[in-house]
Design a protein that fits this description.
The protein is built from three helices and four strands. The longest helix has 8 residues. α2 runs antiparallel to α3.
């Protein structure tokens, strides 16, 4: 079976979850703070986000942050099964799976996550510093 890495294109996501509701963050400077500084957030569909986040003429930088792949009641997103937990992570307690997407060059300042994480880049690149 193919993985998210092999399947996830904007077109594929649009066909699977384009109508799903999500929250989209707007940041004029492309720096997305999660603590202290507030950003404009709007409820949108994944499809509306996908149709605008790469548009060079957009007025604000957009970031789809923490879109759940499973709802609190246990209902799976149509793309949840595309994401496989790597065997080397079986010792982690991974409760949830989320998707973050942006048009590129997003910056998230230093922060602490309360949950254990595994990051998988489907496309693009990211510079990460890990502190203990």
């Amino acid at each position: 079976q193919k993985t998210a890495y092999e399947m996830w294109t904007d077109e594929y996501l649009m066909s699977k979850v384009g109508n799903d509701q999500t929250m989209v963050t707007h940041a004029p400077d492309n720096i997305f703070y999660f603590y202290g500084k507030k950003h404009d957030m709007t409820e949108s569909t994944v499809g509306d986000f996908l149709s605008t986040y790469r548009d060079p003429n957009r007025k604000k930088n957009l970031y789809l942050a923490q879109h759940p792949l499973q709802s609190e009641d246990g209902t799976k997103s149509k793309i949840r099964d595309d994401v496989k937990q790597p065997p080397f992570t079986k010792f982690l307690h991974l409760e949830d799976a989320f998707v973050w997407m942006g048009g590129g060059d997003q910056v998230t300042p230093v922060h602490f996550d309360n949950s254990e994480n595994v990051m998988c880049m489907v496309a693009g690149r990211k510079h990460i510093r890990i502190f203990e």
